[in-house]
Amino acid sequence: MGRHVDRHPEFLQPLHELLVNHRKSQCRDPRDRVFAQLGLIPLEERKLLERFFPDYQMSEDAVAVITLGHVACFSHKKVTLEWGQLFSGIGVQLKIKEEEALETLRAF
To answer: What is residue 8's DSSP assignment?
Structure first.
């Protein structure tokens, strides 16, 4: 109880960092790659996402699209190799070479 994140907000991390850091974690339901992280993100970011998540009626693709859109808007990060790791963290398997994926992402 003494380690609850509400008492230690310094342990909260942005969703994109959690997804990258835990990209090798396994789960039965791929949507849990995102849903399981919701209690570990800062409150302002959580408030934006709780309008959508968790919703197990939502398809895996819909969860991935909303998550990627959120990360792109919320984090204001440039497209880097970390995005490939982010895709992995969400459970999206890239079927093209990493360089091609980066070029495609930069087009957006």
So the answer is: -
Quote the pLDDT of residue 69.
83
Angle between helix 98-107 and 82-90 (nearest 10): 90
* Amino acid letter for position 71: V
Whole-angstrom distance, CA of residue 76 vs CA of residue 29? 28
Nearest to 87 by CA among 52, 57, 61: 61
Of the candidates 82, 28, 30, the residue with the CA atom closest to the CA atom of residue 54: 30
Distance, CA of 78 to CA of 47 (rounded, Å): 23
pLDDT along the chain (108 residues), means of 10: 56 88 88 92 91 93 87 71 72 61 61
Angstrom distances, CA of residue 61 to CA of 8, 14, 58: 33, 21, 8
What integer pLDDT is reported at residue 82 of this predicted model? 61
